[in-house]
Amino acid sequence: MADTETTDQKLNFEQNELVLCFHGPLLYEAKILKAENWGPEDSESGDTGPHYYVHYKGWKKTWDEWVPEERVVKHNEANLMRQKQLKDTYSNKKKKTVRIGNKVSIEDQAKSNDKENHERGKKRKKINDDEEEEEFMNRLEIKIPLPESLKVKLIDDWENVTRNNALLKLPRKYTVADILNEYLEFKHNLIASTANNQKSDKDDIHSEVVQGIKIYFDKTLGNILLYADERQQYVNIRKQFLDKENSEIYGAEHLLRLFVELPRLLAHTTMDQAATETLEEHLIDFLK
Question: What range(s) does the Chromo domain occupy (predicted)?
Answer without folding.
Answer: 27-88
